[in-house]
Amino acid sequence: MHTHDDWITTPITQDLLRGALDLERTERGLLPHRLPARARAQNTDGQLAMAESQPSGVRLALRTRATALELDTVPTKRVYAGAPPRPDGLYDLLVDGRPAGQGSVAGGDVLTIDMTTGTAGVERGPVGTLRFAGLPEGSKDIEIWLPHNETTELVALRTDAPVEPAPDPGRRVWLHHGSSISHGSDAASPTTTWPALAASLGGVELVNLGLAGSALLDPFTARAMRDTPADLISVKIGVNVVNHDVMRLRAFGPAVHGFLDTVREGHPTAPLLVVSPVLCPLHEDTPGPLAPDLAGLGEGRLRFVATGDPAERASGKLTLNVIRDELARIVAQRAADDPNLHHLDGRDLYGEADAAELPLPDGLHPDAATHRRIGERFAGLVFTGGGAFSG
After folding, report:
1. Per-residue confidence (pLDDT) for residue 181, from 0 to 100
2. How many other CB atoms are found less than 10 A from the CB of residue 186?
3. Is the peptide bond before 229 cis (omega within 30 degrees of 0)?
4. Most buried residue, 23, 126, 234, 343, by CB count within 10 Å?
């Protein structure tokens, strides 16, 4: 049993973290961000602010002889008015690259969201502690993957032996941007979101800019990608543009070109993969906007419905099929001058046969088994066998 005097407290600094683009000092500690301060200053949308502060893909990476550690954090728990409580976010522990434990942190702040009125409020709560003990003896590399769906302020790190940053693994860095599916909605844990699984299978270091509800071709996100060191880059575009009903076909094409132009300013020759939407029957041929079907919310069942009219495609409203065609056209056009630009139809990751076997539980987001399938498919198609990232 460790006493208070046994612990060594190590300041949490940027060199102990991977996957975060910025660290904000708060009253209680440090808040990892997945968008830099300049991008956050240009955003006024609460959904994006919440999404980018949820540390999907962010992990502490340590080398130590410690056999026990404690991490104090302030999580932000989300509560949807009228719905049962959500489970606490999970932390995944890896020791020398292998799964070695999971844990959660109780307490923290509570964000209550009323989906009927669109309002939200925050109640502050206490610091909580994550503990792992019985770790292997000797020097080892430890990663603690933070909850992908729970904003997490880092307060203190304590161990029973000194800690230093884990050495650079020498792997290629993969920078990925996408929607809530890339963020990890309904994945089992932070290392089992589909990008985390694909990165593990592909032997690369992940920087995940999957932003739930917020893959909207924002110029500040493109600039963040431009300025982030990376060897491999992918952009998964489409479903949020449709379900938010934010633009028509006339604006979509130039916005895609502009986004890719900006990314290319910082990464002129890196392999750049454009991925179109996975199958989502709600929006294949029906435009947005998307709306929650609140009928089953009290029983813990949330589903979504598309409220657009398919006839509106004639006036330029976007559907997933329209977007897939436009992305294929844009990539084919640009690839004539950009041999490192590639395209992947998202239905090759999750298509009609998959939807029959593993339907989307809420009509929009994949479950844990589907995240695994998408991650394995992506790794097989992209990291091997002549795929975009196989070089």
Report:
1. 98
2. 18
3. no
4. 234
